[in-house]
Design brief:
Elements: E1 5-9, H1 18-26, E2 30-34, E3 50-53, H2 69-81, E4 86-89, H3 91-99, E5 103-106, E6 112-120, E7 136-143, E8 145-149, E9 155-159, E10 167-170, E11 174-177, H4 185-194, H5 196-199, H6 209-235
Parallel strand pairs: 1-2, 1-3, 3-4, 4-11
Antiparallel strand pairs: 5-8, 6-7, 6-9, 9-10, 10-11
Helix pairs in contact: 1-6, 2-3, 4-6
Length: 251
């Protein structure tokens, strides 16, 4: 069988695909990683079975400084419209939300920084990718902006006390998450050095190599099988979410 090819959009050098790339390839996927604007994005998604969009330090609407973000949003919209399985992470999730008519703004509860937990919502229990996750999932947070409004018709899959829109699915197979699952301790420590004002918002013992190693072991346990399920979804071995049933009001 031919390996399913995934377009991986990496908006920022500081957020590589990391362990997530290993999990996707060990499940049988082939990755085509593009780092715009140096590496151009394809005009369409012919030949790609799925799309992954990673995080970055810019804002989802920061087109003045990063005009190529419009092309990323356009590709994400095309993928969702064509029902090409999509996994969009942190900035990627925000870009997906905006591309589909949702909203992103500076978080009114302040930045989320460091290890955290998100909890499954009702729709997650029947979702192909989220159903097998535990009720509470270990994640890594590092963001100023937040998804303030989901796209119309999107299903909320995970929340946290400070920011409700932690994970969502649009239509049958376009997924956006606010948190990170692709990081390593070294990547997080680099972010902390680059953004000391954000790192100061959490306790000093949280952002240590030892603690982050423990956290990432827990992230691997939870999200490696999730990445494998995403490849199964891309390959057609796992059925996408069912179409939402539209009910009419009683006469």
């Amino acid at each position: 069988m031919t390996a399913p090819k995934l377009l991986v959009i990496q908006p920022d050098e500081s957020d590589p695909i990391g362990p997530l790339g290993d999990w996707l390839t060990e499940a049988g996927a082939e990755l085509d990683i593009r780092l715009p604007p140096e590496q151009g994005l394809p005009a369409d998604l012919d030949g790609y079975a799925g799309v992954v969009c990673l995080g970055g330090g810019m804002g989802a609407n920061d087109d003045v400084a990063h005009p190529w973000l419009a092309d990323v949003r356009k590709l994400l919209s095309k993928a969702a419209s064509a029902r090409i399985p999509t996994l969009a992470i942190c900035l990627g999730g925000q870009l997906l939300a905006v591309a589909l008519g949702g909203g992103v703004a500076t978080g009114d509860q302040g930045p989320e920084v460091g290890p955290g937990l998100v909890s499954k919502k009702d729709a997650a229990w029947t979702d192909p990718l989220f159903a097998d996750l535990p009720l509470m999932q270990d994640v890594l947070q590092f963001h100023n902006d937040a998804i303030t409004r989901l796209p119309a018709g999107a299903e909320l899959l995970a929340s946290s006390p400070r920011y409700a829109n932690q994970a969502f699915r649009f239509d049958r197979c376009a997924y956006g998450v606010q948190f990170h699952i692709e990081t390593t301790p070294d990547v997080v420590l680099d972010w902390a050095r680059q953004s000391p004002e954000m790192a100061e918002l959490t306790r000093p013992e949280v952002l240590t190599q030892e603690n982050l190693a423990r956290v990432h072991a827990d992230i691997t346990e939870t999200w490696r099988p999730f990445a494998h399920r995403f490849v199964r979804l891309v390959s057609g071995d796992l059925a996408p979410a069912a179409d939402r049933q539209r009910t009419l009001p009683m006469a």
